[in-house]
């Protein structure tokens, strides 16, 4: 008697794909990355244990909330060999990810709140731009857009305490940029 897919102890890549909603190519990628494992039949075909469904669900949910695959792999590596994550595991792991997610939410909220003033960068709105890259300092980092992410706090007598601008720069350049008079001038404009 042949088991139906939901009763089978092992699943083919196609069955796992159908049950999980994840493409076979993604399953192979997860396997190469060490997130899931399969055994090989005598005909060299992959077979996944039923528990792999839960691991794939864990991976997908973690990705959906913004956790990078490298962090997901580290989390799965904390589990005993071959065990699938359960509710307690999710609770424990989600606590460790909460601070990172809160930081990302804060950063995205700041970006959203300044989006109406920003035209994307050229920068034609330099006088009011919260994303400052004076003298194209990030041009040496390579082509394409760069996230600028270093806080410059502005405190004045009138109670302005909002971050004036953010730039992400290499650690070696951090002292140089925070001491830069142009950035300090921008901080003054933003609080004024």
UniProtKB/TrEMBL annotation:
Molecular functions per Gene Ontology: 2 iron, 2 sulfur cluster binding; DNA binding; DNA-binding transcription factor activity; metal ion binding
GO BP terms: response to oxidative stress
SMART domains reported in the protein's UniProt record: HTH_MERR
Keyword hit for rRNA processing: no
Residue intervals of the HTH merR-type domain: 10-78
Statement: the UniProt record of this protein carries the keyword Lyase: no
Entry keyword set: 2Fe-2S, DNA-binding, Iron, Iron-sulfur, Metal-binding, Transcription, Transcription regulation
Pfam name, any one: MerR-DNA-bind
Name this polypeptide is given: Redox-sensitive transcriptional activator soxR
Gene that specifies this protein: soxR_2
């Amino acid at each position: 008697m042949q088991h139906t897919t939901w009763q089978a102890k092992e699943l083919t890549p196609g069955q796992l794909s159908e049950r999980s909603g994840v493409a076979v190519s993604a399953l192979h990628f997860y396997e190469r990355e060490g997130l899931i494992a399969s055994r090989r039949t005598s005909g060299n075909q992959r077979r996944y244990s039923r528990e792999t469904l839960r691991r794939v669900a864990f991976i997908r949910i973690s990705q959906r909330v913004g956790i990078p695959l490298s962090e997901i792999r580290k989390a799965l590596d904390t589990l005993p060999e071959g065990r699938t994550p359960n509710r307690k595991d999710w609770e424990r792991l989600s606590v460790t990810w909460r601070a990172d997610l809160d930081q990302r939410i804060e950063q995205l909220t700041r970006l959203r709140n300044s989006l109406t003033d920003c035209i994307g960068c050229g920068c034609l709105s330099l006088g009011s731009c919260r994303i400052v890259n004076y003298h194209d300092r990030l041009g040496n980092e390579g082509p394409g857009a760069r996230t600028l992410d270093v806080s410059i706090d502005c405190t004045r007598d009138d109670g302005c305490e909002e971050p004036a601008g953010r730039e992400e720069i290499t650690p070696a350049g951090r002292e140089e940029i925070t001491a830069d008079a142009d950035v300090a001038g921008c901080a003054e404009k933003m609080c004024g």
